[in-house]
Amino acid sequence: MKRLDRLILSEMIGPWAFGVAIFTVLIMAGSFLFELTRYITDGINPLLVGQLTALLMPGIMVKTFPMAVLLSGLLSFGRLSGDSEIVALKAAGVSVGRIMWPVAAFGLAVSFLTFCTNEQVVPLTTQEAVGLKKRFEADLKGKTAQEMSQAVYKDGKLVASFWAADFDFSKRTLSRVIVTVYGSDQLPTYYIFVEELEYTSEKRWVVRGGGSMTSADAKSLVKFGSAQPTEMPDLDATPEELLAKALRDLDALPMKEMGRQIEKLRKSPDMTAGLRSQIANLEFGYWNKIALPLAALVFSLVGAPLGIRSHRVPASAGFWQAVIIILAYLVLANVMSISAQGGRVPAFAASFLPIVIGLTLAGYLVHRRNT
Question: What pLDDT, in 10s, does the model give residues 136-148?
Fold first, then answer.
């Protein structure tokens, strides 16, 4: 590593850490402060609220990592240009394009960190946070139930529908389950009540607490224990798949699980408008798992050339430029997200269009600063 690279990297790391801290606090305050303080004033143990805060933090930080790169580029290059070090480098024959190499390397490193954190840490903490919020609501309102329904098809025909009064992802259980079994004529043949279904390590749902089975003509009633009736089809959905149906926050699912969900939903014989919307939402979330980390690379290459300024521009201009650019990026990303979920724009294009626009802008800025 050359002295130039060390100089630029040492300038960027400090402002980046500062940016992560300040953006994380701002987003946490803007998104969750009211909810967290309400839990405390309603009597939830402050230590548990602190635990929820810690669980929410990784999901916020993966979004602030790229934002902080932009602020880092603006501040560090604002300082370098303010002290005429950029002028000195250019006078020594170093082009702006060469100066951007360590900037791009730093952006790629943050992209890698963001991707790994988003895949390995955020799904686990988000799922834990969902469970903890449910526990809080149970303590405050006495309501724990999260209804869940799932249809089971075989050879394109509906063979059963499952409805559960409560789905507990943390325990991987469905409680008070009613199963409607359909015959070849697509009419109900049995109604089965199961006290609890538990998803075991053998990757199958097993009966807990027994239940009863009633024929559709109400002429027979059979009670059973832990043995699943042969008339009851297996529920072919994992807890993660059921969670995907219930969650709006796609942070809770890693890419591999999203891809599996998308493939399975595409094979569904009952392709309703709601199902198409769910697929589009998952596809946008899937590609966004890559697009979000790449924003760090884009912001690094946009922020650094923008930070090269004249002596008459105040240092605080970097903060305002960062805020305006991040706001524009978020607006564009949200518009693309809504368009993708509505089926107006392919999910792949909606995820990566902000990245393409950002890289084009970065190329223009580097070229302009180099001339």
Answer: 877 776 655 577 8
How many other C-beta atoms are found inside a 10 Å radius of the C-beta of residue 227?
9
CA dihedral of residues 224, 225, 231, 232 (deg, nearest 10): 130
* DSSP 8-state symbol, 186: S
Residues 6+ apart with CB under 8 A from 90: 96
CA atoms within 13 A on the CB side of 319: 7
Q: In what order do the strands lie in the sheet with 173-182?
A: 148-154, 157-168, 173-182, 188-199, 205-215, 221-224
257: its two tokens: 């699980």
Distances (CA, A) of 259 to 62, 220, 280, 287, 369: 21, 43, 12, 10, 42
C-alpha neighbours within 13 Å on the C-beta side of residue 185 = 3
- Token pair recorded at residue 202: 């053998």
Q: Model confidence over 154-212: pLDDT tens digits?
A: 777 788 889 888 887 777 888 889 999 998 887 889 999 999 999 887 778 988 888 89
Measured in residues, the chain has a length of 371
Do 160 and 180 form a contact (C-beta atoms < 8 A)? yes
Assigned token pair, 363: 């190329």
Tokens of 53: 């805060």
Distances in Å between the alpha carbon of 224 and those of 159, 213, 228, 229? Answer: 21, 8, 8, 8
For residues 103 and 28, give the distance between their C-alpha atoms in angstroms, rounded to a whole number. Answer: 28
In angstroms, the CA 270 to CA 273 distance is: 10
Residues 7, 104 contacting (CB under 8 angstroms) = no
DSSP letter for each residue of 66-108:
HHHHHHHHHHHHHHHHHTTHHHHHHHTT--HHHHHHHHHHHHH
DSSP line for 290-359: HHHHHHHHHHHHHHHHHH---TTS-TTHHHHHHHHHHHHHHHHHHHHHHHHHTTSS-HHHHHHHHHHHHH
- Cα-to-chain-centroid distance, residue 322: 23
pLDDT in tens, 88-137: 888 888 888 888 999 999 999 999 999 999 999 998 898 888 878 877 87
